[in-house]
Write a structure and sequence with these properties.
Length: 158
């Protein structure tokens, strides 16, 4: 049998966007062998590493979201603790927001604060195109983004 080469989990300081797995190991949220196991499970599935880590019970969704915020050098926003401004949210169609895993949270002096599950997946130019606003990005838990949209939609239907 071929011996499996150990994956290198070294954190590269000069990388513009550090590997999520390396970041989680570096912040001691994950052990290297847990990361190996998750990467094995993920291989060939096309699934997100974060989803695999949650499914394996290694981490919670919030751990992943906080790490993604750190990885992209943007703030983490707890959507359970901060309310979404309906007027801001209305800058984006709900079906688009659900698909992009993004929600405009509030207007700020310099534009619109938009919470996304992953800035890499939902780049700023996409958000600017969808909202017609200057955008500042933050990261929130994907499940919280979904809940916020369903609350807004329920409100519209009454």
């Amino acid at each position: 049998a071929m011996t499996k080469l150990r994956l290198d989990h070294t954190f590269f300081e000069n990388e513009t966007r550090p590997h999520l797995g390396a970041l989680l190991v570096q912040s001691r949220l994950l052990r290297p062998e847990q990361l190996d196991q998750a990467l094995d499970a993920q291989r060939g599935t096309g699934r997100r590493l974060g989803d695999v880590l949650i499914e394996l019970g290694f981490l919670f969704e919030q751990d992943i979201s906080r790490a993604i915020a750190l990885q992209n050098d943007v703030p983490y926003l707890d959507l359970q603790a901060s309310s979404v401004d309906k007027r801001a949210a209305s800058r984006m169609r709900a079906d688009v927001g659900e698909w992009l895993r993004a929600i405009p949270v509030r207007f700020e002096d310099d534009g619109l604060l938009v919470a996304v599950a992953d800035p890499w997946e939902t780049p700023r130019r996409t958000l600017v195109a969808e909202t017609g606003c200057k955008v500042r990005i933050c990261v929130a838990d994907p499940s919280e983004i979904a809940v916020a949209w369903s609350r807004l939609l329920r409100g519209q239907r009454t």
